[in-house]
Amino acid sequence: MRTNVRIFVAAGLLLAVALALFVSPLASPEPDGLQRVAVDEGFDDAAVDSSTAGSPLAGYAVDGDDRGTAGAVSGVIGILITFGLGTAVVGVLRVLRTDEAESVSTSA
Question: Each residue's pLDDT tens digit in the chain (108 positions)?
Fold first, then answer.
């Protein structure tokens, strides 16, 4: 990977992590739009937990007493997982493209 691309990717990753750490704790604890409509219309008590409700990152936060810190840590974990998966997909596609180019050049 070229140096300029690496710097761009690293800067984007650092910006995303900084936003997760410093901005996500400022998010409103009030219900989002769908939850607010459920409260306003009176059917919020009919909500059922999803099958992933007991998972480590359920509710956009890790377990912890401080909601802001728990949300920030959860955000960083999500960013790193997404970045890792994206990097893996790009790596696989790059290998497949290289293999395809080599097979075309040897058969010609």
Answer: 688 989 999 999 999 999 999 998 888 777 778 888 888 898 888 888 888 888 777 777 777 767 788 888 888 999 999 999 999 999 999 998 887 777 776 765
Query: Is 21 within 8 Å of 76 (Cβ atoms)?
Result: yes
Nearest to 13 by CA among 76, 62, 60: 76
Two structure tokens written together for 26: 């400022």
CA–CA separation, 58 and 64 (whole Å): 12
- Max CA separation in the chain (angstroms): 69
Output DSSP code: residue 60. G
Residue 27 backbone class (left: φ over 0; alpha: ψ -120 to 50; beta: rest): beta
pLDDT at 1: 60
Distance of alpha carbon 69 from alpha carbon 67, whole angstroms: 6
Candidates 9, 14, 26, 34; CA nearest to 87 is: 9
